[in-house]
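forwarding from the other thread:

> can someone predict this with beta-D-galactopyranose?

sure thing
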Amino acid sequence: MNRLRAVWLAVVLALTLMLSSGCEQAKQQEEKQSLRIGVSLYRGDDTFINNIRAELEKTAKAYEQETGVKIKLDVQEARGNQNTQNNQVERFISLGCDVLCVNMVDRTGASAIIEKAMTAGVPVIFFNRQPVDEDMDRWDQLYYVGVDPKESALLQGKIVVDLYRENPEALDLNGDGRISYVLLEGEPNHQDSMIRTEWSVQTLKDGGLPIEKIAGGIANWERSQASAMMEQWLEKYPGPVELVISNNDDMALGAIDTLDRKGITSVCVVGIDGTAPGLEAVKAGKMCGTVSSDKEQYARAIFSMAVDKAMGQDIRPELELENGKYYRCPQAIIR
Ligand code: GAL
């Protein structure tokens, strides 16, 4: 009798377990019909980041229409404040986000966000502002999407080297055998400004260009700061500036604003990003070239990685992640 009761209990237990795991699966299936993605931007007024945001929103809409899966893309701006961003991430987690996409304010301070995400089991796709390796290696559910800054710099350098080989006078405006240049740098701790600065100049040297640096300074990716800096340089150094190398398009456009105001038209200005206004300036002949990252592909990579993770799946292999976690967006010269 006792044995019979034990067998019954075992059967009831097994049935209960099967039913509850069935419910769990059904719940997951149901959840997969709607995904919540929390996106935090370091600032909302950065031209390049806004281009990526627009593409991300477009991609999410197209995915919703194609698949019928509802996407709740919650985009917040951290206004350059790391605490604000940490709070946004906390809120995303408490709202039940399936995945987070984070454009760090301070790329060296990702550990607080990683801790929160790890504890809640929510994967994170960082983008554009790359956390340090030590942080990226803390969990296997951390990913990064960005451009390869050395490649941006090599391509930017190539624009200038090619121009010089085609027509040296286009760069050596006063014919003194030297190309006098100024350099506009982005934020000091940003991986893109450090590496771009180093390798753009190195590419010109490697190409054998007779360059001479007149001045350089940090304009934090910003058009107005770059414009003010250019103004100061033109006043301080009366000899002609023949080339402006800028870590991004917005600062290149700032330099052009000043050159325009002064009626100077012959200076070659090169940027990086291929933002909408940057591409327009190249087309209008105001900028001699830029390195454009494929924004559509950039956003598609962030979005598809986010969806894969939100669905509890592996990242699709066609993205060919470097070391299983880094995606580098393709870039091309526009001139
Ligand atoms: C760089 C980009 C800049 C700026 C910055 C923000 O990659 O070239 O224009 O957007 O990221 O982190």
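Residues 171 and 191 are 29 Å apart (CA to CA). thats all i got for now
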